Structures
1.
Amino acid sequence: MILINVRFPVREDKMDEWLALADSYSKAVNAEEGCVSFSFSRSLDDPNLFVCIELFRDAAAGGSHVKTEHAVNFFSAAPDLVSAQPEILYIDSPEVKGFGPMGEIQPR
């Protein structure tokens, strides 16, 4: 399993474009065979900061992902929308199989 987290600081004046790009990109990535989960979340502290959480089946799926047309298009468009260089966290862990239940919280 590959876990990737990316923080995207978005230019306030480009927010509408960012939201449209992030929405279409997320839908396309989630349709990829090797994608386990892909989502963007907006920071509660900074409305211009988005965090992308990506899970891919393995390194091969991640490698295939960055070569897709939608990834290439996203990488081409994003530099005009961000206010600073995004930061990435990349973890490749063959032992992890995906999300599991959280023991501390259960619905009542």
2.
Amino acid sequence: MSFRIGAREILLSVLIAIPYLFAITIYFLVPLVLLALTLTFYWKKNLMLGNVLGTAFISSLSFVWLSFVNNTAVLPSVYWLLYILCGALYVEYKLPIRKLDKRVVQFSWLLSLAILVLLSVKSLLLLMPLTLIEPSTRFLFPGKKLPSMRDIAKLGRRGLKRDIIFVALLILTTILSKFLGL
């Protein structure tokens, strides 16, 4: 769909992008790379990776927000991005039409955990098990694929509830971390 864009859409995109040119920081690199990869995978007709990276791109927009609020709390945005990326892989694995091995989901979460541990060394509160127990259980033990595509709505509703809990715990641990000076 992204390659069916007309001149009007391109003009609107350029106009919308103008204010961002004055606020470009290093944080813009993450969404820009994810957007480029998303469009590349869609162009190459790899819908699965396009979907995964497109979903990660949307969550990476929190990095752009960091630029506008002059916030140095990058760690929660990294948590959110890695959680969403692994969640998108998990959903793609669960789809019966995809030939994605569950070890990809498991490896992506283990790699994410390693990155989070390295980044969280100075903020041990963010490593609080509450924020990592549920996603670790879900991503390390993803279970069987869905029996049919009709079950995707149920998976989505359960995922939404889990996402809300994860965000609430992430906000809580971030606030506690700032309050306690960790």
3.
Amino acid sequence: MYGEDSKCFEHSGSMWEERTCRQVRQWQHWGSGCYQYSCSAGRLNIIVDNRTFPCYYPGQELEIRLLAEGWLHVGSISCPSCQELCQETFENENKTCKPAIGEPSKLKKYSYPLDPMGCGCSCSSLSVILSIIMLLLSTMHFSIDMH
């Protein structure tokens, strides 16, 4: 995203990928990307595809996994310091950036949306259930014949 309340942030880790069940594409230019951000609740928040990812300390790697238009986008963004982007905003509101902290342990595992990308059978649930019922019936019939 470009414009007011947007900035280019460094991508961290490995090259960003876009995945479908049949294809993987890696971004040619993955060193940085421009995203909207907000300064609220004493933190810098980076917004990707209308989802907010809070930065708790400078250098924190935000792991991004978002499903958009049939593609799973996977990569990470490096957080700058809150003061770098939010100090002026917070000063105007008589507030300050909260001190840097490590991510709370429960957030490490669950804080970011991990959109699933199902790559299995495209069969409907009903046809799968019917197949299981038919298999069970044929097994029961077979066992009855054996006695």
4.
Amino acid sequence: MQATAWLMTALAVGLTIGRCFIHWRKKNRRLRWDDIFNVAAAILLIIHTTIYQLYIPPDYNSQLHAMGIKEGLFVGQDPIIHAKFTVADILLFWLLMYAVKASFLALYWELFNISMRFRIAWIATAVFTTMSFAVTWVSIFWRCGSPKDVINLSKY
């Protein structure tokens, strides 16, 4: 599982670097907004994969121990650290997803410059995407009730 995550992350980062290199040479030494959002997504992917790899093995072993499958492998976790990793993982995941969406929206802006109707459709899509991002981001914190209950995410 860990090797696959790092292999896919390396592949995504490599393709992003290749894309930026091609666009840099082809577009008179400048990058477009879609390239910038794609680089942001690649950086967020590295951070997300790192946090996920640090967080999941102890959590996975804890779950196996709780189910009685692996005895003696339980690694005690501080509930505050567990909650912080959970929130960080969720937030990074959604930032990553919306950075990719922003990359596509920026690319479509370039493609849709042929028609005003396409641009209007793009604006509607961009507004919807922005609103859904805001709702998704804020709902992560609504999930636990009040901010003082963020540690108890697992009971919701």
